[in-house]
Structure formats: structure tokens, C-alpha cells
Design brief:
single chain, 164 residues, alpha/beta, Rossmann fold, 4 strands, 45% helix, binds adenosine-5'-triphosphate, binds magnesium ion
Length: 164
């Protein structure tokens, strides 16, 4: 008899560079446990420039396919894409729900000044450590970022009890 598998849970980490996505993802991956999918790390390991748009788009699509397979198999998956736009977050939410999976959105908010300070930090986790991000780039990206509103947050599932 084929064992019944309940669909898993998707966790979206939303935030600008240096907002703490990788730090949180590593902790949650251990505590839940969950599979962490971080495009920056994959690109860096493949030797691809982290600012190259097309390879990143392709990798993100591949990892999303992989994530859906894992969700079908009942796993918890953490996506560290940053999810600056509401449209991207909606696509993931609807995709996960269509599989019967729960989906959480976690917004890592930090003041821009704090992110500037963290640009200088040498102990950044993940693949951007050796790729320069300037203050000007961060300031520009902050204008593109669409912070989730309370109404949008309410469309997602509550975090797993006991895990913050
Ligand atoms: N909650 C926090 N409070 C203070 N510092 C933090 C916090 N979370 C992460 N940091 C620090 O901020 C820096 C960036 O964290 P992290 O690499 O987790 O962010 P990120 O969003 O994954 O960044 P990137 O987009 O560059 O990969 C690190 O030096 C980390 O130690
Ligand atoms: Mg990171």
C-alpha cells in the first residue's frame, strides 16, 4: 500500500540584502527541521556572478520546481529569495496552496541605516561576502522593495507554534 503523505509547509523569507534571511533560515532549518534553498549559495558554488540576472532567474525557477516536489513529499521548505515584490509572493502562496501545503511569509525588516552597517560586516553568511554591494545599490533596492502589509500577511498561515 502506498503510504499517505500530507503536503508540507513553505516558508518564504522576505527582506533586503543583509536583513538576516540566511541567519534565520539556518536556525529554522535545524529547529523544524526543513530544507533551505538559497540561490546565492548555489550561484556562488557554480561560480556565477551573483548580480547576473538571467542565471538567477533560471536557478530560482529550478529551485521552485524542486521545492514543489519536496512539498508534495511532505517536507518543509525555506526559500531565501528575498521576495521584494508582492506578485512574486503571491505566485508562491498560490502555488503552495494548490499542492495543499501551508505557506508562511516572514518579513525581515531592519532600518536602512542598520543594513548599511551590516554591509561592512565581514561575517556575512551566504554567498554575497565577496561580491560588493554598495550603499547606493542598497538605497536603490530599498525603493523597489514592496514591504508586506498587514493585510497581505493575513493571507499566509501562522508560523509553526513555538518557532519565531
Ligand atoms: N537579527 C539580527 N540582528 C543583528 N544582526 C543580524 C541579525 N540577523 C543577521 N544579522 C547579521 O547581519 C548580517 C547579514 O545577515 P544574513 O547574512 O543572515 O542576511 P541575508 O539577508 O541573508 O543577507 P544577504 O542578502 O546578503 O544574503 C550578518 O553579519 C548577520 O550576522
Ligand atoms: Mg543570505
Amino acid at each position: 500500500m502506498v503510504p499517505e503523505i500530507r503536503p508540507g509547509r513553505l516558508i518564504l523569507l522576505c527582506g533586503l540584502p543583509r536583513s538576516g534571511k540566511t541567519t534565520l533560515a539556518r536556525r529554522l532549518a535545524e529547529e523544524i527541521p526543513a530544507v533551505r534553498l538559497c540561490p546565492d549559495e548555489w550561484l556562488a558554488d557554480l561560480g556565477v556572478d551573483l548580480h547576473a540576472v538571467e542565471p538567477r532567474d533560471r536557478l530560482e525557477k529550478l529551485l521552485w520546481r524542486h521545492a514543489q516536489e519536496l512539498l508534495r513529499l511532505g517536507q518543509t521548505v525555506i526559500l531565501e529569495y528575498g521576495f521584494w515584490s508582492r506578485a512574486e509572493r503571491e505566485e508562491m502562496r498560490l502555488g503552495a496552496r494548490s499542492l495543499g501545503a501551508a505557506v508562511e511569509l516572514r518579513h525581515l525588516a531592519a532600518p536602512l541605516e542598520e543594513l548599511h552597517r551590516r554591509l561592512e560586516s565581514r561575517n556575512t553568511v551566504g554567498g554575497w561576502g565577496t561580491t560588493a554591494i554598495t550603499r547606493d545599490m542598497l538605497d536603490h533596492w530599498a525603493t523597489l522593495f514592496e514591504p508586506p502589509t498587514p493585510a497581505e500577511m493575513a493571507l499566509f498561515d501562522a508560523p509553526v507554534a513555538g518557532l519565531r
